[in-house]
Each structure stands twice: as C-alpha cells, then as structure tokens.
Amino acid sequence: MPEDLSPERRLSISGHLARLEESRQVPGSWTLIVDGTPQSHVELDRPDWLGFEYVRRIGHAIDLVRPEGEAITALHLGGGALTLPRYVAATRPGSRQQVVELESDLVDLVREYLPLPRGAQVRVRHGDAREVLAKLPAGLDGAVDLAVVDIFSGARTPAHVTSLEFYELLERRLAPHGIVAANVADGAGLAFARAQAATLSQLFEHVAIAADASMLKGRRFGNVVMYASHAELPFAGLPRRLASDPAPARLVEGEELRRFIAGAPAVTDATAVPSPPPARSVFLKR
Question: pTM for this one?
Fold first, then answer.
C-alpha cells in the first residue's frame, strides 16, 4: 500500500497521530505507529503469531498461566492494535477478555481496518486505565488469570500507572494464581525499570523479568517485561522459550533480580514519574 494511503487518525485526547502501515512484502501484516513510535504488530491471517519481541515475552506468560488451550479471564490495560486479545482468542478459545483503552479514536481505527476474529469475546472499556480499573465490575475481583499492563501515551508510560497504589488496584482483581505481565520501556542505566521491579516486588511474592543481554546491562533503550504473582510463577519452560525466540532473552529472578533492583525504592504516587522518552533515532527505519 502506498505510504500516503495508509489509514491514520488524529487522536482527540492526546493529539498524537495514529497510523496503520501494511507491509509491502507481506499483505495482511500491519504495524500500528503512534506519535512516530511503533506500538503494535498484527498478522490478520495469523493471530497466534507475535512479531514484536516484548509482545512475544508477554505471550509466553499467556501460554503458561493455565494448561494449554484452557480458557482464561484476561485484562488488558492499554489496547494498541489489540494484538494480545487476538492471541488469547486464537490460542485459548472461549476466553473472557476486557480491554481498557483511553483513546476511543484508536479503537475505532483498529476495528475498522483490523477487525477482531469472529467469536472473540473481547469487551473494550474506554477511559483512563487507572480510573477504569477502580470501577470494573466486582465480578472481576479475584477472577483475572492474566493482567497485561502495556500503557503508553506516545512513547512514554504516564506516571500515575507506575506506582504501588496503581498496582494495588490491579492486585485485587487477580485470581490467586493470577499473573501481572507489564511492559516497561527504559534506557541507559535502567533506573526506571529497576524502580518498577522494586515496586512489584514490594507487593507480590514472586517477581521475574525478561530482557535481552544488552538491555539488562543498560546499554540501549528497549523493553523489559516484568511478571508478578502471589503464586509461584509457572515458568519452568520459560527460559527455553525466551532463548529460542528470534530475539533471545533471559529470565531474571531470585537473587539475580535483587541484584538488578540494586536497592531502588518502590514507586509511590508521590514519587512517580513517566517512563523516559526514547531518542527518535530508535525507531528510524534503516
């Protein structure tokens, strides 16, 4: 598709430009770009295939949270192109899913050009993730098997969805075995990621993170996926999955995770800051 014909929409709340770009080489392969930042990838004919490396790492948690193929209750904070709800619907038919997305214009754009598969049980709730989270039906209390936190305004995560108080609202929605999978973007030094790991560790007994070696050493801007639960994480096979991905990663937990946190304090509403902005060169096509 010629670039000037790519569907796009100016988002009324943030003012960011959202654009859907279809691959010239692979028809039906789409990337959602918001404010110049690639945010989601969708393969319309292959909803069970995940392209972005950090999304694959969240997908592994979806695969392992319950026995293969078993329906789950999933809560997605941040909608994007609805990549992960598609994945859950394809790999765990009958799953009940809730998506919370601030930008209604974005949801309309995605649904118009990248409709969900028939039969997908996905309800989209519009509004700020933290505000909606506090008002979700009581029937979700203690019922969510997997909660995905992937909230961005452009290239940054807003401060109010990074704090202990925010995660306490999410915690009460989780089933006893429920897992939080959070996408954290950070750069050199990883101060933001260390503080997020410290925050989850203060609230949850079991925490682990997944990232590639260069990210763990704080050498570049990228994504760290964090997993947290009150129950032991069912991740015996996860290191092998991460190592065999197209972009290999490592699982960090236990004493190694404590060394990663390195004494960083947990984030509260009083100390929360947005995630750091990436350099624009990070997303330039080469």
Answer: 0.94
